[in-house]
């Protein structure tokens, strides 16, 4: 189905920005309803206007859900019948219950009276929409970069808060009224919330307790106690683990550092070398947060791995003169041949006099190019490359290249380079032309003009 047809039918793509914002609004509305509707059910003297608005918005949500394409294994299904079928298997019934004004017939029948117990109960039916909040949150969690443990902790805190609020609202409705205490709605709710917290926290001071002559108060209290014991047990069993796993990467890094320290101690590594080892692992933590980029890339499908590598390295590759005119197929292949390396400050990446069997691309950091006596020729920064001429000719290096700081580089070996020259004749010709141009430039620089002949 074409985009034009989709727009004509008012169909919405599941990844549409409007749908994302609407679902976010629904989460906020459901949470607001979870707080406000119990209060309306307890304290309302008439049909609340906000209740009418909430029900109307829930009905709008049904209409929007009926216009959202269904995601399948082969893409998206835009057929209205399939959308309805999928919705009916999901949250259609809870959404319909939440969106209908069940209290309206009762309110019209007893319009001159204060809402009774049945009407107040019907006020709570839209709360069934809370069953769908988990579905909404799954959508948002996929696009968030927040630690999943933190999300779980926040959801647990919100859940406990809502349960406490509901229990407190119920206690306002059925709990005993003590003489001499403030009788306004706010004071009633605060005392009920105090009773609820002391009950589910298994503290139970006893200053607010059920009337032993009222069975419904006793049953409600026992239910709250059982629920409180369950929450308390969950807290004891899980919160400590949740807190410990808030920063899993940091915990893994600390365990790794313990192993490194043990290795240094057992092998009696000299202090200077030991400090370099520790500095190296601290650098890995600062730049990669304990992750392993190579492992992640190896786990990705080949097509996706190439796409990520292209994004990270294409700019660097295209700065090399004999790569500039090559097509994207060639660039993709050469990028997959690159080997990531890390060099410490003052490390020699290239040494004068050694045979060149690779070239380097500087991804991060800076290096110094030095002569045989330590004189500084140049300083290269991020995006630079070096070692290409020795790689082509197999000659000895003519300079030292030393890391000024921690450097992330990519290495291209001579074997990979020569293989590319064999596979791509255009590239081989580009290399030959580039070498010839450089030789001509170097010859021109070294030639001195002949001294003028003096006339006798």
Describe the structure.
It is built from 19 helices and ten strands. With about 450 residues, it is an alpha+beta fold. The protein folds into three domains: about 1-145, no CATH class; about 250-290, Helix hairpin bin (Helix Hairpins, Orthogonal Bundle); about 300-445, Jelly Rolls, CATH 2.60.120. The strands form three sheets. It has a four-stranded antiparallel sheet. The chain has a four-stranded antiparallel sheet with strand order 4-9-6-7, with no helix packed on it. Strands 1-2 form a two-stranded antiparallel sheet. It is elongated, with a radius of gyration of 36 Å.
Strand order of the largest sheet: 3-10-5-8
For the sheet with most strands, the description reads: 4 strands, antiparallel
Helix content: 55-70%
pLDDT under 50 segments (min length 5)?
A: 1-8
What percentage of the residues does DSSP assign to strands (E)? 5-15%
What count of domains describes the coordinates? 3
Number of helices: 19
Q: Rounded to an integer, what's the Rg over CA atoms?
A: 36 Å
User: Helix/strand/pairing class, anyone?
Assistant: alpha+beta
Number of strands: 10
* Broad shape: elongated
Mean pLDDT: 81
Helix and strand pattern: HHHEEHHHHHHHHHHHHHEEEEEEHEEHH
Q: What is the terminal separation in angstroms? A: 94 Å
Topology record:
Blueprint: H1 3-8, H2 17-43, H3 49-65, E1 70-72, E2 75-77, H4 80-89, H5 92-99, H6 103-109, H7 117-123, H8 133-143, H9 148-174, H10 185-200, H11 215-244, H12 248-267, H13 271-288, H14 293-299, H15 302-317, H16 328-335, E3 339-343, E4 348-350, E5 358-364, E6 367-370, E7 376-380, E8 385-386, H17 388-393, E9 400-403, E10 407-413, H18 414-423, H19 425-446
Antiparallel strand pairs: 1-2, 3-10, 4-9, 5-8, 5-10, 6-7, 6-9
Helix pairs in contact: 2-3, 2-7, 2-8, 2-9, 3-5, 9-10, 9-11, 12-13, 18-19
């Amino acid at each position: 189905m074409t985009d034009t047809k989709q727009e004509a039918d008012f169909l919405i793509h599941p990844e549409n920005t409007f749908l994302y914002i609407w679902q976010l609004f629904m989460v906020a509305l459901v949470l607001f309803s979870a707080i406000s509707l119990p209060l309306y059910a307890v304290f309302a003297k008439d049909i609340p206007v906000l209740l009418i608005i909430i029900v109307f918005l829930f009905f709008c949500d049904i209409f929007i859900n009926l216009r959202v394409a269904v995601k399948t294994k082969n893409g998206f299904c835009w057929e209205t019948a399939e959308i309805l079928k999928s919705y009916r298997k999901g949250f259609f019934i809870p959404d319909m219950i939440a969106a209908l004004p069940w209290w309206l017939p009762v309110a019209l029948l007893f319009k001159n009276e204060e809402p009774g117990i049945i009407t107040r109960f019907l006020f709570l039916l839209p709360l069934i929409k809370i069953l769908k909040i988990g579905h909404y949150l799954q959508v948002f969690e996929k696009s968030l970069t927040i630690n999943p443990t933190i999300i779980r902790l926040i959801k647990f805190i919100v859940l406990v808060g809502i349960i406490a609020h509901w229990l407190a609202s119920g206690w306002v409705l059925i709990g005993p009224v003590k003489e001499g205490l403030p009788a306004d709605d706010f004071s009633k709710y605060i005392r009920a919330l105090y009773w609820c917290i002391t009950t589910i926290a298994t503290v139970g001071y006893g200053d607010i307790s059920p009337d032993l002559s009222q069975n419904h108060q006793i049953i409600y209290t026992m239910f709250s106690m059982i629920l409180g014991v369950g929450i308390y047990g969950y807290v004891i069993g899980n919160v400590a683990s949740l807190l410990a796993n808030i920063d899993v990467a940091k915990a893994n890094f600390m365990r790794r550092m313990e192993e490194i320290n043990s290795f240094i101690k057992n092998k009696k590594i000299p202090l200077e070398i030991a400090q370099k080892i520790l500095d190296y692992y601290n650098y890995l933590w600062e730049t990669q947060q304990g992750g392993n980029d190579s492992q992640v890339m190896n786990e990705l499908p080949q097509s996706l791995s190439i796409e990520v590598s292209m994004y990270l390295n294409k700019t660097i590759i295209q700065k090399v003169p004999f790569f500039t005119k090559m097509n994207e197929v060639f660039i993709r292949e050469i990028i997959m041949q690159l080997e990531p390396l890390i060099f410490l400050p003052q490390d020699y990446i290239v040494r004068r006099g050694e045979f060149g069997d690779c070239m380097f691309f500087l991804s991060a950091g800076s290096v110094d190019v030095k002569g045989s006596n330590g004189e500084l020729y140049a300083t290269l920064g991020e995006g630079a490359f070096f070692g290409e001429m020795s790689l082509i000719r197999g000659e000895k290096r003519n300079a030292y290249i030393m890391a000024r700081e921690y450097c992330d580089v990519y290495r291209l070996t001579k074997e990979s380079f020569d293989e590319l020259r064999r596979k791509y004749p255009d590239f081989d010709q580009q290399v030959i032309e580039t070498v010839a141009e450089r030789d001509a430039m170097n010859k021109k620089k070294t030639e001195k003009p002949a001294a003028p002949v003096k006339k006798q």
